[in-house]
Amino acid sequence: MLMLLAFALGCAPTCDQVCRKTLFDCDLSTERVALATCVDQCDRQLTLYQDQWMNDELASLFADHRRCLMRESCEEIADGVCYEGFEDLFVIDEDRAPLSEDPFNPNAAVQDTGESIP
Questions:
Q1: Angle between the 35-47 and 56-71 helix axes, to the nearest 10 degrees?
Q2: Cα–Cα dist 83/81, whole Å
Q3: pLDDT tens digits, residue range 3-38?
Q4: How far is the C-alpha of 72 from the C-alpha of 55, rounded, in Å?
Q5: What integer best gives the mean pLDDT of the chain?
Q6: Which of 11, 23, 91, 118 is the most buried (most CB within 10 A)?
């Protein structure tokens, strides 16, 4: 299983490749994010899933997400095709209740306050 995951992650495009496509080829930057910032944030997200959380499912989903961004057209990406089905990768979602006390660690224990979430 671990070898399969390593192979799958190894075949995924790098953060640099994905950032270059989305920022330059597709011009999808809404806030003019610098390439170095994009790559750094992407690499940090990958490290978070693989090394800190040791969450093979999220690491694999993130690899699939990067593959989608490289495979799809700029128009399809702008329409959200690579975000549908990848919602678990994005920590901040205003329409969902928080999953834990620590929004950057989905494995953290949820504290029961006795209150219901609307």
A1: 150
A2: 6
A3: 444 444 458 999 999 999 998 899 776 666 788 999
A4: 26
A5: 76
A6: 23
